[in-house]
Design goal:
alpha+beta, about 375 residues, globular
Length: about 375
């Protein structure tokens, strides 16, 4: 968490979440779909990266949360009318502090501060009213750790592996051609072509998306006939780490949250909403002397994704964000967990547990 950043006291945050879960009037029910909390595990039971010869078909577990967006207005009015002192504590330092956050060097201990309810996004300020307004832009915000000789790689080789890992994150989650629905070619070429099960999954997912083969677990895509990303900036915040893996491989783990502001594709559309995606991807840069791998590519160890306002039970291969009219027409209520998609203090193990069931739930904000 950046220096000088304020946030909601733990006891107030816990009370806030309890109210939301209990259905208290004015509790957060935000628009959108916190969809696709999916985990992918490849390789042996130990969780260590295995050679392509021993890969087992991935076991996919899904859990999804549904959003309802007008939450901030309702919560703000309720809090201001009933507990004005608490409201002051909530918003103190929220919207007023606009200084960019320092890069994430470790997992934060609490969620970011709540922004003033009146700060709705616009075409000119698509991140307005969001913690992402203080986040960095695109791949430049994803700071790499210092390189050191690890496993079979020298310091220079580790540095190159880290750069290529970030290249994959950019090619899969930031490339505007991919965001417009095009094939993620620059991401695919970085994936080991000899990892047969992964290559089959990617091919099937992009050709005929389904619940079983969902490209959104790895790639961010929007249907250009329905929505478009606002501007040239996608806000990101994340943590990239590495360690020595099995057979001396360098195993890079990237836990990154992406915030995409979008509008309807129709000409003249100006209502901005946001889709928020958090992915954890583990990439193994294997020793070619021990694993059959194309030089300059990685083997996929695991991947899991937790997304908000992306479409609940959406298997089209494209994120399907909701806008105000969509939310008004959808009066369904879901029993899934209440989650803040900006809260990076919660580990992916909690958000996307092994064996988790698919479900739709509620997010506290967009």
């Amino acid at each position: 968490m950046g220096k000088g950043e304020t946030s909601i006291p733990d006891e107030e945050w816990e009370r806030f979440l309890r109210d939301a879960e209990a259905g208290v009037s004015g509790a957060p029910e935000e628009p959108s779909a916190r969809a696709r909390m999916v985990t992918q595990r490849l390789g042996a039971e130990s969780g260590s990266p295995a050679g392509w010869r021993t890969h087992q078909p991935p076991s996919r577990q899904k859990s999804k949360v549904w959003y309802v967006v007008g939450f901030f207005v309702a919560v703000a009015l309720l809090v201001v009318s009933l507990i004005p002192g608490w409201a002051t504590g909530w918003f103190d330092g929220g919207g007023g502090d606009t200084a960019p956050l320092a890069a994430e060097s470790e997992r934060p201990t609490r969620p970011p501060a709540t922004e003033p309810a009146a700060e709705l996004p616009t075409l000119d300020e698509p991140f307005r009213g969001s913690p992402a307004a203080r986040w960095g832009d695109g791949a430049a915000a994803l700071t790499l750790p210092g390189a050191r000789a690890t496993g079979w790689m020298s310091k220079a080789q580790v540095a190159q592996a880290l750069e290529r890992s970030r290249d994959f994150l950019a090619a899969s989650g930031l490339d505007h051609r991919v965001l417009r629905g095009e094939r993620p070619r620059n991401a695919i070429v970085l994936m080991n072509p000899h990892q047969k099960d992964v290559q089959e999954y990617v091919t099937a997912a992009l050709r005929t998306p389904s619940a079983e083969n969902d490209p959104l677990l790895l790639f961010s895509r929007f249907a250009p006939s329905k929505v478009r990303v606002v501007g040239d900036v996608v806000k990101t915040r994340g943590l990239i780490t590495y360690r020595e893996g099995k057979r001396g491989a360098v195993e890079v783990t990237a836990d990154v949250t992406y915030v995409y502001p979008v509008v309807r594709a129709a000409a003249g559309s100006d209502e901005v909403t946001r889709t928020i995606v958090r992915r954890e991807i583990v990439m193994s840069w294997d020793d070619p002397a021990k694993i059959i791998i194309k030089p300059g590519t990685f083997s996929l160890v695991s991947y899991r994704s937790d997304s908000a306002n992306s479409g609940c039970d959406n298997h089209t291969g494209y994120f399907a964000p909701e806008f105000a009219a969509d939310r008004a027409a959808d009066d369904d209520r879901h029993d899934g967990a209440v989650v803040d998609p900006y809260d990076r203090s919660v580990s992916m193990d909690v958000l996307v547990p092994e064996g988790g069931d698919g479900e739709c739930g509620t997010a506290t904000r967009l």
